Amino acid sequence: MKRAYVFPGQGAQFSGMGKDLYQSSDKAREMMEKANDILGFRITDVMFEGSDEQLRATNVTQPAIFLHSVCLALCSPDLPKPDMVGGHSLGEFSALVACGAVSFEDALRLVAVRAAQMQLCCEAVPGTMAAVIGLSNEEVERVCREAEGIVIPANYNCDGQVVISGQKEAVARACVLMKEAGAKRALELSVSGAFHSPLMEPAAEELAKAIEKTEVREPFCPIYQNVTAQAETDPARIKENLLKQLTSPVKWTQTVKNMLADGAVEFKELGPGAVLQGLIKRICASEGKSAVIL
What we know:
Distance between the termini: 14 Å
Number of strands: 10
Strand content: 15-25%
């Protein structure tokens, strides 16, 4: 019976996240205080007491979710080792720590660089994202190609649910076209930028430097990366895919289907919220497969 651990991305944050871990686990408290030192500010104060607005800032949200997720993975004494791991967008960095490919400290530094650079992109170019419900992947891709401006599928979340990303005007036009094509809903999301689109390209240079300097070891179990949705164990490939992820779609639907095909029967989400649990249940249903969702 194969066990998969999965890690959420941006949007799962909430005020108070990780506080119970900080109070109950010496190891988690040590990791969180180390994170405060590495980041140069007390991110735990924002996690435990911050407003929704403070937590929504990309340069806060990403390290906060990463920290909460990794502490859950490494500080739960009865948690057995996974047979495979994967993460949604930012969650891929948490997964890299959980499978032993990257150290906690190095991954946190990477996340901080990624978040800061993405924040700069958000401020420089107005972009947005929108959820499209009720169209096939192929239809969403077709409409994006036909819409004017920069707009692409960014998150394949589950069958019938795709998030698009790009220039504000292009996303707005694409939403109208999606509804004309039969979408049940095409709704702009409350996000600060066009993640996983070409608008994030200016962040690539600094992230590439940070990834190049980071030691990536062969993981003790495969990590299913967003860009390929395939099981990866080669450190060079992992690095390459990490950089590509910045401007490429998150193939979450395809990832979960591949995990199922490779024998996963138990999925555990580690991090704030339970978004991935819901998506995995829908993907299992569409595949006619049953799995234990923890």
